[in-house]
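Write out this protein's structure.
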Amino acid sequence: MIGEQIKYFRQQKHVKQDELAEYLGVTFQAVSKWETGSSTPDISLLPKIAVFFGVSIDELFEMPYEEQMNRIENMFWHERRINEQTFNQTVAYLEKVLRENPGDTRAMSNLAYLYNHRAAADHATASLYASKVLELDPDDKSGWVAFLEANNGVCGDEWYDNHFDVITYFREFLDKNPMNYLGLYALIENMLADARYDEALPYIEQMKKAKKNHQYLLYLGDVAFGKGDPVKARATWERMIEEFPDVWQAYCSLGDGYLKLNEWEKALDLYEKSFTMQESPRIYDGLCSMGQIFEMRGLYPEAVSTYRRIIDCLRQDYGVMDGEQIDRFEREISRLKKKY
């Protein structure tokens, strides 16, 4: 690790191996061996190395920023639950980065993901306990509430289930960042989820201007469907692949539309097409939807086969051979196999 740190700090300082070697009174071959990991510097050299780079001796043994961030980001994908010691160490590291550079958005994002990851893991545990409560007492309201909350379910209280805070935030966000695509995306999605269709329409028009893609047609169709006009919704959704015939996301979104219309076979065909249209690395969202459709229809072997395709995609396109990304679908396969 110290060799990697020496290389990192040397490159950050824009100096050559022989410049460092001359300062330390060693050969450049010695520095090269440190950096490749075939040998390590004598302990007596550590103070001089630290002085040369303007860092503490402790920092010489810390993982470089880029590797630290990559390690943290990999945890989100590969770990189902991050143990408490690792969690606290990661928080401490990211907070240290932010003290030194308050504008480091990557560190901020990773802190947000870290806490969300723990929240998701805690919700999974809460879901397990709540489901056991309901197995023992189906009329236990506390277990019912806990299970719905853990799984982001609808409780039936309008004030609790709505997305008022999110909508308020992104409205104010768009006042400061007009025409921001991601802000529009978030605001429209949450307005539609709360059936605030008329309020969403002006923002859908803004989205059409912000980026030329199929998304505004998807949302116009969603508004028509939500207001009770499935014929208009279908026609609007179908325009997505008419106007954007080479965009795989348009086919996947049309599949979502057909799913709302309960046209299962058409949805399955479009999800399949959206996946096969892509080059590596492929996004497998459509396959996830296919797996759910097969399960809803009681076609459990087909669902299992679909989840195996997702695992194959992860391995072939992303080089993921193990960890939570694979395990989550293996769990789905095990669960479904018990049904047939």
